[in-house]
């Protein structure tokens, strides 16, 4: 029995106890679904995930639904927050069960409407997909990233109940989360302020479930640059997290990065990070 069968058969009271959630930065939904024979649509047809958080759709809602049309016809439901700027950001949640409610944004006058946050409410569980800015040290881009993190942090601290937020955080938390950490100590993604922000979120009650299940080991990395031989040498970053709070955090039983077996089989520069919550 696949996990999606469990998803469909459990009662609403058991839903938060039995689901598999995946997160993936698709690096452009039209490009990811357009890779015939080895792309996102084939992955969707094979995955046992019940809920999939996606980031960087880089497409309008209409374009995203067109790109995902075969998957939607097969029964997937889509909640999507389209980009505020053409070709940038865009986040979504694919689910086998239709959400009870969907909310784009988290009440920020600056950041609602830019396609960086969407959440879907199911029976007993709320799941969010987030795409944090890439940033650039000592520039206005980094200032914007810090403003987003501050606003998001306030929202996360206000949450109660079973809640899982997944996405591309563009922050490597510790030296274990980035292969070349010494060469990136002054670069966005590994700056002290960014890492301290994650410390604060974890101290507020969130659990980095992948790190909990894979303690004291490098990675497992989820992003590799297309440049050079980063993928072949596994010179990556772990920046795609599942952060969970409530009882669901303790139900994370297995976590895997679905790294392609070879470079030619990649359909994004990220790999899906999939967690079974049991």
UniProtKB/TrEMBL annotation:
Lineage, top-rank taxon, reads Bacteria
Task: List the Gene Ontology MF annotations in alphabetical order.
Answer: double-stranded DNA 3'-5' DNA exonuclease activity; metal ion binding
Query: Which residue numbers mark the site Interaction with DNA substrate?
Result: 270
* InterPro entries on file: AP_endonuc_1, Endo/exonu/phosph_ase_sf, Endo/exonuclease/phosphatase, ExoIII-like
Instruction: List required co-factors.
Output: Mg(2+); Mn(2+)
What GO terms in the biological process aspect are recorded for it? DNA repair
The record describes how the cofactor is bound as:
Probably binds two magnesium or manganese ions per subunit.
Give the family this protein belongs to, as stated in its UniProt record: Belongs to the DNA repair enzymes AP/ExoA family.
Name of the protein in its database record: Putative exodeoxyribonuclease
Tell me the organism: Nocardia wallacei
């Amino acid at each position: 029995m696949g996990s999606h069968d469990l998803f469909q058969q459990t009662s609403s009271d058991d839903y938060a106890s039995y689901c598999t959630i995946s997160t993936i930065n698709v690096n452009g939904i039209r490009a990811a679904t357009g890779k015939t024979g080895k792309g996102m649509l084939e992955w969707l047809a094979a995955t046992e995930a019940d809920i999939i958080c996606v980031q960087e759709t880089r497409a309008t809602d209409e374009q995203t639904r067109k790109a995902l049309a075969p998957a939607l016809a097969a029964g997937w439901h889509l909640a999507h927050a389209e980009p505020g700027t053409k070709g940038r950001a865009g986040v979504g949640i694919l689910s086998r069960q239709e959400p009870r409610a969907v909310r784009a944004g988290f009440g920020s006058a600056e950041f609602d409407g830019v396609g960086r946050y969407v959440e879907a409410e199911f029976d007993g569980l709320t799941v969010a997909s987030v795409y944090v800015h890439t940033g650039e040290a000592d520039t206005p881009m980094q200032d914007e990233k810090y403003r987003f993190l501050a606003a998001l942090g306030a929202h996360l601290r206000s949450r109660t109940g079973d809640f899982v937020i997944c996405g591309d955080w563009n922050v490597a938390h510790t030296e274990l989360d980035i292969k070349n950490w010494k060469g990136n100590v002054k670069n966005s993604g590994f700056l002290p302020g960014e890492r301290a922000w994650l410390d604060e979120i974890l101290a507020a009650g969130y659990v980095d479930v992948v790190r909990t299940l894979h303690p004291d080991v490098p990675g497992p990395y989820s992003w590799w640059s297309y440049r050079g031989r980063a993928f072949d040498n596994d010179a990556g970053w772990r920046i795609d997290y599942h952060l969970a709070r409530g009882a669901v955090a303790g139900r994370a039983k297995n976590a895997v990065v679905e790294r392609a077996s070879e470079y030619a089989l990649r359909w994004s520069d990220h790999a899906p990070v999939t967690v079974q919550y049991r």
